UniProtKB/TrEMBL annotation:
<dbReference type="Pfam" id="PF06784">
    <property type="entry name" value="UPF0240"/>
</dbReference>
<protein>
    <recommendedName>
        <fullName>NADH dehydrogenase [ubiquinone] 1 alpha subcomplex assembly factor 4</fullName>
    </recommendedName>
</protein>
<dbReference type="GO" id="GO:0032981">
    <property type="term" value="P:mitochondrial respiratory chain complex I assembly"/>
</dbReference>
<comment type="similarity">
    <text>Belongs to the NDUFAF4 family.</text>
</comment>
<dbReference type="InterPro" id="IPR009622">
    <property type="entry name" value="NDUFAF4"/>
</dbReference>
<dbReference type="GO" id="GO:0005739">
    <property type="term" value="C:mitochondrion"/>
</dbReference>
<comment type="subunit">
    <text>Binds calmodulin. Interacts with NDUFAF3.</text>
</comment>
<feature type="region of interest" description="Disordered">
    <location>
        <begin position="16"/>
        <end position="37"/>
    </location>
</feature>
<feature type="compositionally biased region" description="Basic and acidic residues">
    <location>
        <begin position="17"/>
        <end position="27"/>
    </location>
</feature>
Length: 179
């Protein structure tokens, strides 16, 4: 109901109001800032003459100025734009075994590569008495808390093969015959 009333007031006498606005004289523009008047003064010949006139006193002062510049010594960049670390990080060689071609060769201490992580997770899964969290932390230079978290939350996949007898039991089901 309220929409109809507001629409009626909005549309009331629209054509007359529009023609009245169109027939009005163009509104006067706002006054310009005083800096805008300088453009008109710049076209005057006196100002142009003052700008292009040479001042002998300034020329003599300019001749007394002597600037000497030297290039800084050239630094040879080694490594083709590679950023060097601020502090030297200790690195260790990875313990990869037969997966050597798949992973990086050096890893910072306190970190492991993906292949190493999968290797020690699998070793812990197969032989948890031998590959304890303490031994893994010592072997791979990791913190014990992080190793415990990895062993708790990450489990490697296992492949399971079903024996053939189970397949026969599933496929050997004889459907009932309709008579």
């Amino acid at each position: 109901m309220g929409g109809r009333v507001t629409r009626a007031f909005r549309n009331f006498n629209v054509e007359n109001r529009a023609s009245r606005e169109i027939s009005k004289e163009k509104p006067t523009p706002a006054p310009r800032h005083p800096t805008a008047r300088l453009d008109a003064l710049a076209d005057s010949p006196e100002i142009k003459e003052e700008v292009f006139r040479k001042d002998d006193r300034f020329l003599t002062l300019l001749k007394d100025v002597y600037v000497e510049s030297r290039d800084p010594p050239v630094q040879v960049k080694d490594g083709g734009g590679e950023h060097l670390p601020c502090k030297q990080e200790e690195k260790r060689l990875t313990k990869l075994g037969y997966l050597e071609g798949l992973d990086v060769k050096k890893v910072p201490k306190g970190k492991i590569s993906i292949v190493e992580a999968l290797t020690f997770l699998n070793n812990h899964k197969l032989q948890p008495q031998i590959w304890t969290a303490e031994k893994i932390a010592a072997e791979y230079s990791l913190e014990l808390k992080e190793v415990n978290s990895l062993l708790e939350f990450f489990i490697p996949f296992t492949v399971q093969e079903f024996p053939k007898e189970t397949k026969k039991a599933i496929t050997g089901h004889k459907p009932k015959k309709l008579t």
